[in-house]
Amino acid sequence: MGLTSGSTGRKAVDEGLVIHRESPQDRVVALAGNPNVGKSTVFNGLTGMNQHTGNWPGKTVANAQGRCEHNGRGFVMVDIPGSYSLMAHSAEEEVARDFICFGDPDAVVVVCDATCLERNLNLVLQTIEITPRTVVCVNLMDEAKKKKIHVDIGALSKQLGVPVTGAAARSGRGLDELMDAVDAVTHDKATQADPVQILYAPAIEQAVALLEPPLRECCGEKISSRWLALRLLEGEEELIRSAQQYLGGPALKTPAVQEPLSQARELLEQAGLTEQALRDEIVSGLVRQAERICAHAVESADRGYSSRDRKIDRVLTSKATGFPIMIALLAFIFWLTIAGANVPSQWLSSGLFWVEERLAVFFGWMGAPAFVCDMLVHGAYRTLAWVVSVMLPPMAIFFPLFTLLEDLGYLPRVAFNLDRYFKKCSACGKQSLTMCMGFGCNAAGIVGCRIIDSPRERLIAMITNNFVPCNGRFPTLIAILSMFFVGVSGGLAQSAGSAILLTGFILLGVCMTFLVSKILSKTILKGVPSSFTLELPPYRRPQIGKVIVRSIFDRTMFVLGRAAAVAAPAGLLIWLLANLKAGDMTLLAHCAHFLDPFAQMLGMDGVILLAFILGLPANEIVVPIMIMAYLSTGSLVEMNNLTMLRQLLIENGWTWSTAVSVMLFSLMHWPCSTTCLTIQKETQSIKWTAISFLVPTVAGITVCFLFHQAVQLLG
To answer: Are 116 and 195 in contact (CB under 8 A)?
Structure first.
């Protein structure tokens, strides 16, 4: 997980990162921008489905490339990580900086947000300092129009000295003009004015003037001598190492460079500019220049254009109202999921089990042995059918709803509300975002932990991610809540009650996340929480059609495919345990009896604990395993009627306290096999994978034991 000299700079670009060219004449274009400016939308609009994804060499930072054609020429678009600055403070910003500086792109496109252009110009100006082959794409022009903000593209281009185009990428407008500008820049047809030069304090300019001539002599045209002079004065050691790698030798360590560098630093010291003061002055210079440019190029007819968003934020991010609204909205989403999933789940179940009957007939017609038919059809296929019928309808409702909140701009507000609590736990506020990802799939939440820069805080987020119930555990929690605490009559009251109680259990999981994060940060993962910049994007009208398509194909089908891949093998194993006998009992019964004494201490029984163990591949099959074991059927049994299921559980010793214990253990137990494999892949460590497995397991056992003992004491 660490960074090495081989994972940055020229080696990362030339030896590690493979550029997918279809022709030697293809031009490479870096696509940069702040987060939430629509950079990915521009990338997708230009490249379509012609994309390649992976990681940057040596880093767990996503890399996306795509090819497009314009005017008969090919372009490879490299979507570099979103960053606010090229003064790298994170792995993402380091990757973006190194590719722009040392990746030799033929052009750099910087995507900006037209509604807050001044802030975005910070990155634009830094990019122009590195390379004059810069094109600025002012995106979200449609949003700016709604907010009565006018951006004069011509004036902006004149001020910056580089091509500037306007776009509304969500609707595809302006992308052709953008590629016209890129084509002109990459094929030396642009009639470029002299790019804007940021002027700093006189002492800084004198120091740069001392350094530029020797740097120009040793670097030639490979890199901007002015930009490199500023970085040498700042003393960015990691960048200097990457620059030396790129230049192919110790050029920066020669006396011809080191002597004027010493003189320049003495000059800065005489002016009272330490390294930190120098950085502050450089940043101030960029900010002042951005203000001057926007004063000439941006007009706002309504100075209070953002007042609506700010008024909404005062409610949604308030200490008094933010959390109640967040909880109510979460409960509403769960209610819609519960109420809307019942009927389609029954339809899907009926259809899939009808197919099962036809498969059994087919195997009989083929003359297959009975045990083969039972094992494959009533074992593997039935388990697969159960998982699909239980998982698909709730996911098809939950994921689009959750994605709509993301597209609307609400999820960053959730992260803002939770940030202060994660800070109190000595964790990173970004953990709130990865926790939200875990609602759909814990494995997706683990992958999302890549956004956390600190290895210590990334591990805390991974270890505690499982305390948020994934979509595979929702059916178990909902069914038990309905049977033992709400009622099984159906209707509005039942679904609303289930949603409220489910929300309460999820909040308990969030509280456990805080508690365990605090314990980890004070024990095996000691440290001080790092700060991060969280941008609150403007509220936007969600693109409902695109959201539904994206959430179903990118999230729902991905998670369902993962579950289906492990469900079939798990079904084979379960069938074997349920049908192979040792003495007068099946192997499944022997295992349940063996686990029973320990399970009783937790307020459960051996069958329940065994179902959780066999449900390691997929949490969706926990309840079916319980039913099969109680009925001794030898295969999973469909039981859609909750009244019948409740009666079966009560006949096997369940009480309200058993139900609570099962729900607590479902909330807090080991991650599924896919999540464990994902943790191992992300950490490259068996040790941390084992800890991620043990921490929620120990927490679940402890909580269940304490709850059961309290019930016993209270009678």
So the answer is: no
